[in-house]
Amino acid sequence: MQFDKIKYSNWWKRLKWGSQAQANTSLNILNFISVCGGVQQGESGIISSPNYPQPYNSSSLCSWLLIAPEGQTINLTFVAFEIESHRVCGWDSVTILNGGSPSSPVIGQYCGTASPGTIQSGSNQLLINFHSDHSIQGGGFQATWTADSLGCGGILHSENGAIRSPHWPQNFPRNTRCSWTIITHESKHLEIAFNASFQIPDSNGQYYVAIYDGPDIASPLLGKFCGDVSPPAIKSSSNNLLLLFITDSFGAAGGWRASFRETLGKHDNQVYMFAKKTTYLHTRSLHLSTRQGFLCKFFSVET
Ligand SMILES: [Ca+2]
């Protein structure tokens, strides 16, 4: 009964705090994998709540660790979702973490009947935690996952990871339109660095990687790159950036790979000291000629 739940919620909250703290302290997900959940390593799999398609058990604590091959990402798609509803998912919940440890950033915590839909990881690991309290069970959930080596674009909630042109390290296809939005913790910044091997043939400005200092193309352009010279490391001035990769029908060739990581935000002490020494930003642009003889425009922001 709902009334009983509210009456006893504080008592259960204390109990839950205890068990969660214990789980966090141990940093050993195997502790609750022994109850339900597990490690799935490979290129695809299915996870579901205990007893699915029957309602899940009360007082469950399950954790699934999904591991795709190195360098790939994971697409997790919920095909069924019914978890006891609560305003802040304080009773039963599915929590998805972007990485393989309990301290990985949380992508989201879900309950009710609004399915999380499809979640894309920022690296080759995802951790899914399921928790239910002492009363009222929903129908549960089921989700399928696949490793993605040819991914093109997406919204990545992650503090680090890597992205690359489709089919990397083989040639990328024609008519590519990829858009990645990378989001890390609020108040932090991002740095993105390209591999030394960088090949985007200059097709009179039709092939390029563009990086924006924010979530969309209305944000300031940090750089637009093509040719065979790897761009310099690029830093965002907030916790998100947009990277576009555009090709046309000219031909399929080359490719690139870039890794990103979270850096300290401007309100962090270390960067504040640095910022006091360097009090300005300036943008320079230069024209570099590629082997094909076309002009390829580079911008870079320097601190
Ligand atoms: Ca419940």
Automatic annotation (TrEMBL):
Q: Where is the CUB domain?
A: 36-148, 152-263
What's the protein called, per UniProt? CUB domain-containing protein
Q: Which UniProt keywords apply?
A: Disulfide bond, Repeat
- UniProt keyword annotation of Repeat present: yes
An example of a Pfam family matching this protein is CUB
UniProt xrefs under PROSITE patterns: CUB
Report the superkingdom from the record. Answer: Eukaryota
**InterPro entries, sorted:** CUB_dom (IPR000859), Sperma_CUB_dom_sf (IPR035914), Spermadhesin-Link_domain (IPR052129)
